[in-house]
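Z., the sequence and structure:
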Amino acid sequence: MILKEFKSDRLDVRVYDTRKSMGSAAADDVAACIRKLLSQKAEIWMIFAAAPSQNEFLEALAAEPDIEWDRIHALHMDEYIGLPEDAPQGFGNFLRAAIFSKVPFASVDYIGSGGDPDEACRRYGAILDSVTVDIVCMGIGENGHIAFNDPHVADFNDPLKIKKVKLDVKCRLQQVHDGCFGDISEVPEYALTLTVPAMFKAGYLFCIVPAATKAEAVKKAVFGPVTEQCPASILRKHGNSVLYTDPDSAEYIMDRAV
């Protein structure tokens, strides 16, 4: 059940009564968008985020009926550098388990964590240069990042499509908070990430953000200045963007919503 809905600039902000209903609602909306686009074109391209925050959404999306997955090409938005290729913390591996292996996509392209980062950037950048991304399904980090565009590396006018970045401490600690790593010393310091413009150019942005650990970032994204200091704030400038929250992540925006 939806508790509140309002606009912040061009961003549609929605608060749901539970994390599960939030994920289900996002899946319903993404599925409807997919069906609409596939009625207009032969195939579409989607980008997915890998994080525990996406669990309910991805489970519900994989179960949606009447989606022609074999007309959908899938990408993902970031990956650690230096993890073993079979590491469960790898974002490609997370998405393979959560959705890529559950439905018959036309294609799935993985960034990869164990190869040469420069070559991975060239290869993935070439893919992004050659296609039009239709839908991005994403989250927001505790520091306001989107993908691995932490505040110190985010660039709203980045000329690149994908780049190597050094992760800030708050971002690496989030991976521990999420239960993906036991200690910050285990979290890689570097990663590859799609840039802000690479995602922002997509036709539709669906941003799924549960949990109390994200409440401060959600407040800044929704009501703070639009700045690289909170990269997620750029969502307010996209014409087809929706932010899905639960009562925990929406704690600091409920009273200010109109």
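The mean pLDDT is 96. The chain has one domain: 2-245.

Let me know what you think.
H.
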